[in-house]
Amino acid sequence: MSVRDDLAVVQRCIDDLCRTVGRLEQEVGDGLDVRRVRTDADHLRESIGLLRASAAEPGAAHRPEPVVVSDAPYDSSLWTNPDEANERDGLDDEGLGARDRHAP
């Protein structure tokens, strides 16, 4: 079965569910529990409609390229500031970037 076929089957099942909830609502009444089930069934119908619409788009199955993370050791020179010779550990912006200190 294709995705389109699976979604059509799910849509038919949800339509049957909504019809059954409607009949149940007529027999049992419009109590809180029945309204909750009605709302949940309506949300399912909306969600499947959105899923069918996104699956119908040509690029829907396209996934973004994965980001490669290097296994190389972290480059500590990224935290140093060569312009300021007074800073022992490099960048020091309100306690950030100082290797031996913690922010208050």
TrEMBL record:
Residues 84-95 have a biased composition (Acidic residues). It comes from the Bacteria. This is Uncharacterized protein. Residues 54-104 are annotated as: Disordered. It comes from Streptomyces sulfonofaciens.
